[in-house]
Amino acid sequence: MAQYLNAASFLDLARAAQQRATERCSCTRTPLDGWQSQPLSLDETLLEEIGTLLLEDDLEPAYNEYLPGKTTYWATDAPIAPRYFPYNRCGVWQCSTCAHLYLRYVEAGGYFVDRRIRAVKAELIEDVPLPA
Length: 132
Description:
The protein is α+β, with helices and mostly antiparallel strands. The chain has one domain. 11% of the residues lie in helices and 23% in strands. The protein is built from 1 helix and 5 strands. It has one helix at 7-20; strands spanning 36-37, 47-52, 91-95, 101-109, 112-119. Strands 1-5-4-3-2 form a 5-stranded antiparallel sheet. The longest helix is centred in the N-terminal third of the chain and has 14 residues, at 7-20. The protein is globular. The mean pLDDT is 93.
């Protein structure tokens, strides 16, 4: 399993990646600012898993979502709250060519499986505790 990243280490990683990231890469062809089904055009061989937001001993991560105001799951400005769904089930991946960071997880429900991906923007990361 990949190394667990708490919110602080995830934020540090995201800030560092944003400073190094370049815009010219095939991984940035499709805008991934909000959650999307992973595009078939994305070359997965460019992505390296560098961490996870999934706690190793958490057998069933919470399904609570953190969507303040009128934000939706699909919104490009929706906060990235590592303790909340779907972030608490995500791997953190980095493009080996341009250094962009992505979150990836598998949405499985009913009769389908959907591999989802979202670009990481450090300014959207919020360390919000789960409700008691």
